[in-house]
Amino acid sequence: MNGTLAVGVDLGGTQVRAALVDDAGTVIRRAATMTDTQGGPEAVIGQIAGLVDAVLADEERASVVGVGVAAPGPLDDERGLALAIPTLRGFVDLPLVAMLAERLRLTVKLGNDGLAAVLGEWRFGAGRGFSNLVYITVSTGLGGGVVADGRLLRGRRGMACHVGHMTVVADGALCACGNRGCWEAHASGTAFAQEARRRAAGAASSALSAHGERIDAGLVFEAARQGDALASAIVAEEADMLGLGIVNLLHLYSPERVVIGGGVSNGFDLLHPGIVARVVRTAMPPFRDVPIVRAELAGNSGLVGAAALVLPGSAAAC
Amino acid sequence: MNGTLAVGVDLGGTQVRAALVDDAGTVIRRAATMTDTQGGPEAVIGQIAGLVDAVLADEERASVVGVGVAAPGPLDDERGLALAIPTLRGFVDLPLVAMLAERLRLTVKLGNDGLAAVLGEWRFGAGRGFSNLVYITVSTGLGGGVVADGRLLRGRRGMACHVGHMTVVADGALCACGNRGCWEAHASGTAFAQEARRRAAGAASSALSAHGERIDAGLVFEAARQGDALASAIVAEEADMLGLGIVNLLHLYSPERVVIGGGVSNGFDLLHPGIVARVVRTAMPPFRDVPIVRAELAGNSGLVGAAALVLPGSAAAC
Lengths: 318, 318
Hints:
Two copies of one chain form a homodimer.
Chain A: E1 5-11, E2 15-22, E3 27-34, H1 41-55, H2 58-63, E4 64-71, E5 75-76, E6 81-84, E7 92-94, H3 96-104, E8 108-112, H4 113-124, E9 133-138, E10 142-148, E11 151-152, H5 183-187, H6 189-200, H7 217-225, H8 229-253, E12 257-261, H9 268-282, E13 292-294, H10 301-308
Parallel strand pairs in A: 1-4, 4-8, 9-12, 12-13
Antiparallel strand pairs in A: 1-2, 2-3, 5-6, 6-7, 9-10, 10-11
Helix pairs in contact in A: 1-3, 4-10, 6-8, 7-8, 8-9
């Protein structure tokens, strides 16, 4: 095996995943497990250590430059702290980098999951070659990361780009963060599926109604593809609300390209026309031609990007 | 006179202003005139040339490093173009830098007015020493600029940070840009005064009601200072709406400090408690302690910042 190797860890509220990644962004080996969200820091660190072992053979451990860990924010990535991860018990002001480095005996670097994902797409995916890039991930939550003027946008403590927690509907829906009207509360995969469940309950004519509480984003896309009117309407509304937030991001960051990842991007082909329609209708004219594309690393943007946090070539960019 | 000199020009929809500025940010001489908004590019360029002459004595012209021009966006500051300034007739795809350089026989650099203003406050005002800074100007419109990770945030064509055109009230008030619910449409000085005029019309008990269509932001602040209940309520609502947008900017850019300038900042002392209350109530915890302060260069942030576009020391930052 040639080239430099790194391990990427994606610490999510549902799964912890690890991958051995080479310096071309190729995933060589992967492992994953369900996150022990209630187990506390020691338990989760044990899970991460087990996954890192699983993706590393003995000879590779010596050649690995380090472990990059992507986690939900807010983090303090300069000091390597998890400040407050709401989905993981005990991850408050936790010195995650120090604890992992001691356990793994490897260099560890921590990054916000959105920041890691934009780094992955920028170095190895749909954002290659651009100096200004917005990446959003639409799944359980709605997060993102930004490349501006050829560098990752970090801000104080690397906490910039919490794009899901921008209020777009004053006094709107309650968000997991406690605020109302966040983009996440109106356009995440969770919000999308909830809206579908709510509306399907009273709509016997829709194929969705048979699925009740099992309705998720995938089922809505499937029904829309088969011409179901309710599913198509809900998809159109989701596209419009995604477009509304994307218009904000165009005005705020002026990217050359917007990249969409996360589970909801499985319906990218269905969402794209409505997103573009919103952008063309409401963005200021010089922002209307910015391409909106699907992530290329599929579910691995964050995992590959986490590895890229420690791969050579990203340091100057960070 | 010692040190390097530059001329700053602030091309606004109401006034064109010019100032001779030294490399400590001190304004040595100023001149201003009402913008000939309907006269077309040649007329306005003639106004700018006249103002530059007015602030420059002959011996200074030889030692001036150039002329920095701040104008409302969207601009293409790399190519020196005014793409579409809605308030100035004929300023569409206009090669403003080339036309001015030929007329003035000086180096000319163009910058978005929000970007120039944050540069002014960063180098010489309330933002000195910070690597992450958000500046907003609340006046006729609502604009801003951002320093992130020690550099001006520019984005494609230098068009980032159109903070006023972030939708915060989906389907809200109509904005000058044609979209609905922009922060500018709900929190600019124009929106603030309009709301006061509307509510004063039906409120004989308020001191404001006697002023009818003459009500502006200054009168509302004056009445609030004298304990007028209606004026105080409108100020509180303005503070809350400013706070709502500032929370977004905290989450999006993660600054160490937020600086507020523009005419509405004359009521900063009245607005500050309500802004902070909103931030503490709705920002995610690690963002709540970011200080929100008043601009130090008062009405000159943009003018001094425009000069800073060409002063030595800003190039690396831009």
